[in-house]
């Protein structure tokens, strides 16, 4: 068994097909799998359904796959940072399914944990509950939401080992950890790839069982979306 | 005279208690962090996966791996912790967060809230707002009493698509503070900005409300 691939293109080789469903980790541009997104762009795979909290910004993150018109549908909670997204959506070139952010996260977690549906109070009485089953538990209404799974999940971690064990850094963990569990195949890119034993077993955030392929991403651009600072007094 | 944004934030800060875990929305709610009373321990939750949000970093110390839910660079504190998005919304949905302070486009007298979508305009998405209002123990809304165009925002029923039904406990505007009984219905005006009259508030409000004894 070898999970380690030399680069992003080889790690995705044989996994991609037109019309497939992908999950892509990250929150805004924080913790996005930037090398795997570039490789996805280079692959030219089309008609993608992408499950990701956001759609990147113009020219960055998943925004690069909008430029090449590879995305047919997004499943997201917030897409407000992207002009090209706006244009393609208004032109009818892009389908969009909004999920409340917590419902999106839980649908992914449920997908990874083998739970086909769950009930939540989120969205009861709103547009997102339309057409879905409502059930009363202890006198309150809950809406049924179904699991999400992907053909391939692409995730970004801070450190990983050759077994696929992952450690994330700060708020870059976000959707990366649950998405890693919900892919038929999960491909991870890391800033630092080490041998087994070099990561503390007690400090692993995502166990290698969820990761089938892994690459050392080398250098990272790590774009900051909104740089906010305070003055030194 | 109407309250300023900072005065509204300071009023919202009075809803905090020692030991609270709190989620602050974007805009005026973010300012509430500046008015946490000294000596009170309040932990701020960021739905992208952090408890214990610190202040903005000094220039040159920004960390791209450390942002808040508004995607702004922030810092960590000694008691901070990080977790994934599913765990973060488990905290919200599971009722572990004591208080959420949010902005709104419309609030109704039954506690309904609309703050994510205007039909006919491009919709950016609800983000975590629906999860927050459905899951957090107590929801405080801070908003201007009327829109810039003068439209009434505190209504009998919201006409914009809802974020949640029967969710708002307290409404703080630039001219008054309203207690909302979201379970049984009923609104009480409990505070008025200096120089503002109850009549003026009635003129600028569609929702019906009682006036707390001693106010008028």
Automatic annotation (TrEMBL), chain A:
InterPro entries: 3-oxoacid_CoA-transf_A, CoA_trans_fam_I, CoA_transf_BS, NagB/RpiA_transferase-like
Record has Transferase as a keyword: yes
Keyword set, alphabetical order: Transferase
UniProt keyword annotation of Transferase present: yes
A GO term, aspect molecular function: CoA-transferase activity
PROSITE patterns associated with the record: COA_TRANSF_1 (PS01273)
Transmembrane residue ranges: none
A Pfam family hit: CoA_trans
PANTHER family to which the protein is assigned, alphabetical: ACETATE COA-TRANSFERASE SUBUNIT ALPHA, KETOACID-COENZYME A TRANSFERASE
Similarity comment text for this entry: Belongs to the 3-oxoacid CoA-transferase subunit A family.
Protein name: CoA transferase subunit A
Lineage: Bacteria, Pseudomonadati, Pseudomonadota, Alphaproteobacteria, Rhodospirillales
From TrEMBL, chain B:
A Pfam short name: CoA_trans
Recorded GO MF terms: CoA-transferase activity
SUPFAM superfamilies: NagB/RpiA/CoA transferase-like
Gene3D superfamilies membership: Glutaconate Coenzyme A-transferase
Domain of life: Bacteria
Keywords: Transferase
InterPro entries linked to this entry: 3-oxoacid_CoA-transf_B (IPR012791), CoA_trans_fam_I (IPR004165), NagB/RpiA_transferase-like (IPR037171)
Ranges that cross the membrane: none
Family: Belongs to the 3-oxoacid CoA-transferase subunit B family.
Protein name as catalogued: CoA transferase subunit B
């Amino acid at each position: 068994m070898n999970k380690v691939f030399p680069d992003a293109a080889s790690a995705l080789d044989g996994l991609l097909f037109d019309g497939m469903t992908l999950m892509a980790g990250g929150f805004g541009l924080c913790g996005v799998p930037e090398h795997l997104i570039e490789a996805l762009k280079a692959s030219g795979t089309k008609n993608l359904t992408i499950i990701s909290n956001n759609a990147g910004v113009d020219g960055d993150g998943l925004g690069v796959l909008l430029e090449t018109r590879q995305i047919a549908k997004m499943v997201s909670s917030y897409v407000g940072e992207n002009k090209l997204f706006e244009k393609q959506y208004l032109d009818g070139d892009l389908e969009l399914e909004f999920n409340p952010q917590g419902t999106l996260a839980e649908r992914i977690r449920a997908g990874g944990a083998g739970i086909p549906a769950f009930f939540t109070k989120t969205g009861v009485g709103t547009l997102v509950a339309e057409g879905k089953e409502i059930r009363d538990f202890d006198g309150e209404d809950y809406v049924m939401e179904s699991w999400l799974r992907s053909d391939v999940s692409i995730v970004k971690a801070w450190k990983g080992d050759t077994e696929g064990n992952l450690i994330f850094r700060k708020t870059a963990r976000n959707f990366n950890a649950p998405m890693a569990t919900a892919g038929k195949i999960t491909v991870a890119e890391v800033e630092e790839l080490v041998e087994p034993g070099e990561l503390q077993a007690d400090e692993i955030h995502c166990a290698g069982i969820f990761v089938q392929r892994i690459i050392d991403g080398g250098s990272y651009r790590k774009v900051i979306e909104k740089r906010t600072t305070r003055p030194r007094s | 005279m109407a309250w300023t944004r900072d005065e509204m934030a300071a009023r919202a800060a009075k809803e905090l208690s020692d030991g609270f875990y709190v989620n602050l929305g974007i805009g005026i709610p973010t300012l509430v962090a500046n008015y946490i009373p000294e000596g009170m321990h309040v932990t701020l939750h960021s739905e992208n996966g952090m408890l214990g949000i610190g202040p903005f970093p000094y220039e040159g110390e920004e960390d791209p791996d450390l942002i808040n839910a508004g995607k702004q660079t922030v810092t960590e504190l000694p008691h901070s912790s990080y977790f994934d998005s599913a765990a973060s919304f488990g905290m919200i949905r599971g009722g572990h967060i004591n208080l959420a302070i949010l902005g709104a486009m419309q609030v109704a007298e039954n506690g309904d809230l609309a703050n994510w979508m205007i039909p006919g305009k491009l919709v950016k998405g609800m983000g975590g707002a629906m999860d927050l209002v459905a899951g957090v123990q107590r929801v405080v809304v801070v908003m201007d009493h009327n829109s810039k165009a003068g439209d009434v925002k505190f209504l009998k029923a919201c006409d914009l698509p809802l974020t949640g039904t029967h969710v708002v406990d307290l409404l703080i505007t630039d001219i008054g503070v309203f207690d909302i009984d979201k379970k049984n219905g009923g609104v009480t005006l409990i505070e008025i900005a200096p120089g503002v009259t109850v009549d003026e508030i009635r003129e600028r409000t569609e929702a019906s409300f009682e006036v707390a004894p001693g106010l008028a």
